[in-house]
Amino acid sequence: MKEITFTRLRADLSQVLDEIRDGETFIVTQRGKESVMLGQDNSKSLISTTNVLDSEILKAMVRNAVSAINADKVTPSIVSKEVEALGRIIKLQGMLDKTTIDTLQKQAESVKPSNSANQLSIKDAVDEVRKRHAKTIRDLEGK
């Protein structure tokens, strides 16, 4: 078992994954957060626990997407794609039936179109940022 920092894990991800495939186990530490164990354990109970956790995480993601839809916090096209992708993942893992996924998709499609008057084009947004931060940009360009 090896201990590795999150920063080092990111830098050496390919090598760490190769070692995990070869049976090594890693404890990943990150400042201010709980350590996490990465590695392989072929015990059935651990694998089934992981599948249950994956199931709960995916279901929570779908619930969050639906909540965002209902709260008018996102645009229909983004949510539609997100719900569709989540639905495909969940369907592949056999966690939700097709009817539930179809219902979620219909909810995503029925969201009110966003108010385009409040949206800026990318060019306008960049111009707005440049106006607001003109002094900082000038100072940085002068260095």
Task: Please supply descriptive tags for the structure shown above.
143 residues, mainly alpha, YefM-like fold, three-stranded mixed β-sheet, 7 helices, flat
Query: What structural class do you assign from the helix and strand content?
Result: mainly alpha
- How far apart the termini lie comes to 47 Å
Estimate the strand proportion: 5-15%
According to DSSP, the number of beta strands is 3
Describe the main β-sheet briefly: 3 strands, mixed
Number of helices: 7
Oligomer classification: single chain
**What is the overall silhouette?**
flat
Q: Widest sheet: strand order?
A: 1-2-3
| Number of individual domains | 2
Radius of gyration: 22 Å
Q: Specify the helix fraction band.
A: 55-70%
Flag low-confidence runs. Answer: 42-51
* Arithmetic mean pLDDT: 70
The helix/strand order is EHHEEHHHHH
Task: Please describe what this structure looks like.
- It is a single chain.
- The chain has 143 residues and is mainly alpha-helical.
- It has two domains: 1-40, YefM-like domain (YefM-like fold); 42-118, no CATH class.
- Helix content is 63%, strand content 12%.
- The protein has seven helices and three strands.
- It has helices at residues 6-11, 13-21, 44-70, 76-92, 98-109, 122-132, 134-141; strands at residues 2-5, 25-30, 33-39.
- The chain has a three-stranded mixed beta sheet with strand order 1-2-3.
- Strand 2 and strand 3 form a beta hairpin.
- Helix 4 packs antiparallel against helix 5.
- The longest helix has 27 residues, at 44-70.
- 9% of the residues are buried.
- The model is unreliable at 42-51 (pLDDT under 50).
- This is Antitoxin.
